[in-house]
Design goal:
By secondary structure, the protein is mainly alpha-helical. 47% of the residues lie in helices and 8% in strands. The chain is built from 7 helices and 3 strands; from the N terminus they run ααβαβαβααα. The protein has a 3-stranded parallel β-sheet. Helix 2 (40-62) packs across helix 3 (83-97) and helix 3 (83-97) packs parallel to helix 4. The radius of gyration is 22 Å and the shape is globular.
């Protein structure tokens, strides 16, 4: 019904769902309300996703592909209401407590700048729930939360499509966008460090120093996804 405002937002949708789950005259429930993220059972379900990631890493370690007690490993997990990130963080913390991996394995949250406003990533456009926040705000579970812009998110989404042949919605591209951004930042740190060393040598030789490294020269976007560039430019 176009004149019915229920369902226009997450808040009105949940109000309507809760009304539908209320007891009838006989005291019996005709429906059961399940919160999308602020509920223990939902977080427990998302925990199983974290277990799959942990089990995959343990399998890789078995074949010598990774050292879970030495290699720097970061898991970037998208955060909207926080249920998914909280569940994954619980599974990783459990593995650490059991000695299966060390503190070198970290979980970081990925969120869009602006939170629930002024973003096209409607899948995460909500406040973090009270229950997930208990976990996400604890550094023993989550190292911290980083942000990406809508443009960085769109770059990641189109790259997933053009390079990896994976169709992902904005919320599904969020963690990849953060990993891509951090990789670019780490690459820039390495390039700048190398340049400092070269310039020290050039100064000793009386040769002019190199100009500062520019990020735009090294952080590539839209690799293999140029066919969608005109759509992206028009949208942004």
């Amino acid at each position: 019904n176009p004149n019915d405002p229920r369902g226009d937002t997450l808040a009105t949708s949940m109000d309507y769902a809760q009304e539908a789950g209320e007891a009838d005259e006989d005291g019996k429930y005709t429906n059961h309300f399940i919160h999308p993220f602020n509920q223990v059972e939902v977080i427990a379900g998302q925990y199983t996703v974290g277990r799959e990631i942990v089990d995959s890493l343990l399998e890789q370690e078995k074949f010598g592909h990774v050292n879970l007690h030495a290699d720097p490993i970061e898991m970037d997990v998208a955060i909207g209401g926080g249920g998914h990130a909280a569940g994954v963080a619980l599974a990783v913390k459990e593995a650490k407590d059991l000695g299966k991996m060390g503190n070198n394995v970290k979980v970081r949250g990925a969120r869009v700048e602006g939170g629930k406003q002024n973003t096209w990533c409607d899948g995460t456009a909500t406040d973090i729930g009270d229950l997930p926040m208990l976990i996400l705000s604890n550094k023993a579970y989550v190292e911290g939360v980083d942000h990406v812009t809508d443009r960085e998110l769109a770059d990641a989404m189109f790259e997933l499509t053009g390079v990896f042949n994976k169709m992902a919605e904005p919320a599904g591209s969020l963690s990849y966008a953060l990993a891509k951004k951090r990789a670019g930042a780490q690459r820039m740190d390495k390039l700048r460090s190398e340049q400092v060393d070269r310039n020290a040598t050039r100064r000793a030789q009386g040769v002019p120093e190199e100009p500062p490294v520019k990020p735009t020269l090294y952080i590539a976007t839209f690799t293999g996804a140029n066919t969608a560039r005109h759509i992206y430019d028009r949208y942004m």
